[in-house]
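Subgroup meeting minutes
Present: P.N., E.W., G.H.
Scribe: E.W.

1. P.N. recapped why we're keeping a running log of single-chain structure predictions: easier to compare across weeks, and new members can see raw inputs and outputs side by side.
2. G.H. added today's entry (437 aa).
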Amino acid sequence: MALLPETARRVDLLVARAQAEGHAPSLALGVVRDGGLAHLAVAGEQPRPDGDLQYRIGSITKTMTAVLVMQQRDAGRLALDDPLDTHLPGTPVGALTVRQLLGHASGLQREPDGHWWERAEGADLDTLLAGLTPAKIAHPPHRVYHYSNLAYGLLGGALERITGTPWADLVRERLLEPLGMRRTTFHPTEPYAPGYVVHPWHDTLREEPRTDTAAMAPAGQLWSTVADLARWATFLADPDPALLDPATLTEMCAPVSISDLDSWTGGHGLGVELYRVGDRVYVGHGGSMPGYVAGLTVHRPTGTAVVDFANSYGLRGGHHISGLGRDVLTHVLDAEPPLPAPWRPATPPGAEAAELAGHWWWMGLAHEFHVDAAGDLVGGPAGRAPLRFTPEGPDRWRGHSGSQHGEILTVIRDEAGTPVALDIATFVLTRTPHQTP
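Output recorded in log:
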């Protein structure tokens, strides 16, 4: 569904302003909604962007590496708490776990040894591993959030050892081809935007090298387009179960570490960055390589996302490509909130569910439960996020939300078989405020 004209005009203005004030040779941004590209905003002429022009996506590549890891976890070929030594034996950092590496909680240093890997031709996996020393662990695991590109080079190496398939083939076969992302490639494929550094004093352009980062490719190698990255954003909002269990992606979006302990507006899950903006939490990732910056920001509850690229190394004047994406996404969600699902009459609930609906009490606090269309028991204290319980057997229900997620609700009956109490993880609710549990 296309954006409303006034929303599209505001998005175009934000993009034009970021390109002009940020001195980007070209800038492209796509708003994704309902599984497709709802709006394309472009600015700049070096070259003139469109939805099919390739840019380098940098660390957005990490989100794909993380999904490949989780595919292997779901297939039983690795566990998140496996030490790295299980899959890449003999390294001096082998005690670090897959989970720690995915969530930047391992304490591993940011970069591998040698020249700046993003701007130099890469080395093979054996060379990368040979450069590891115990000193590469800068902090004890889980002590601090410490972003590590090196961690993703090692995860890519572990994937190759587990599957017997090079990472580049793995990402193409397991993700890009099934999702129809034919313009997302290891090397640039015409048409693509050259990447530049803009001189700070006279605004001339210096073209940057387009490197093959080899063993570090899982951390930031890929090239993509607005149209293709819109498909990836749609996947991160609601994955195809044939490629990844939706519950696994939800697991990936739970915080492993908080990146700003002063304000709690950012964090990292299992391969995805988390951004809090007001009452919303977005998931995604930023990316940069010499000559390029990119952003991917997804609001999973509504399936709305923004993808954006520029072909200069950083933007000036306080502009940031990921910040632009968050600003645009927030504006779209505020300006065009999704319509609520229409109310429809329910089918009559099952006998047990029906007799549990209504008012219950705990410590003088009223709870109210109703049965929804799926047959779940939904409710709780007024004014709080609703609890949800799914039937698991006679008089046994499993919590699926909030503080009772995973907990058991047991129905307590009197001698006549009438429900008189609900035992929710030892907290007993009764039918009247003064009834004794």
